[in-house]
Amino acid sequence: MKRSLFATTCLAATVMIPLFAWIAVMRPAPAAQPEGARAGSSSPADPVTRGKYLVTVAGCNDCHTPWKMGPAGPEPEMSRMLSGHPQDMELPAPPQLPAGPWLVTVAGTNTAWAGPWGVSFTANLTADPETGLGRWTLRNFVDTIRTGRHMGRGRPILPPMPIPMYKHFTDEDLHAIYSYLRTIPVVNNRVPEPLPPR
Ligand code: HEC
User: Fold this and answer.
1) 12 alpha carbon to ligand 1 midpoint, in Å?
2) If you take atom 22 of ligand 1, which residue's CA is the nearest one?
3) 136 falls within a domain
4) In a domain, 40, yes or no
5) Alpha carbon distance 141, 13 (integer Å)
6) What is the pTM of this model?
């Protein structure tokens, strides 16, 4: 006996609807996104939130926040967030350059780096007008990251500041990072000038 088209359609629907519902339920939920992350340009976060996210995942705290030894190993001292190499830290002259392939000596704070370029000290990125980026315009900030020179025209920014990677940030990203850096607690901390190679 031939089933009518109507009956076949009804049967198919009875099977398919619960199947689709089951697939929908079983599909893993998307992982929670950190604040400021976004999948596409269609859902822009506000620049400060986005900047906080970018600063966090791009690792600015790895070098611009002094690290200290904590109970579970080295950790960034967030009360001095992004304030650069501590001015009160007494540092002896760096050791001789290590025998290759070793190249770099770094202080336990991660803020002073000795290598073939001399000794570099990480900058104070807080908005302190005397010792940080307080007087910097967005233009100064973008020019520095894009050209790898202080404010786009001064001396070259030394390693290990990741200019070769960061110069690829979009204008929107750099605006977001700059906006966020203006909202973090201001720390007055004068970072020393770099030392020339010996
Ligand atoms: C691997 C270590 C490292 C990381 C990561 C890092 N920096 Fe740096 N940064 C440095 C060092 C060292 C200097 C100082 C270089 C010098 O004195 O020439 C510096 C300098 C700078 C300067 C220049 C300041 C000036 O006065 O010219 C800016 C701006 C800056 N960093 C921003 C950032 C931002 C924003 C991030 C994260 C997106 C970041 N840095 C991540 C090491 C780092």
Assistant:
1) 63
2) 123
3) yes
4) no
5) 61
6) 0.85
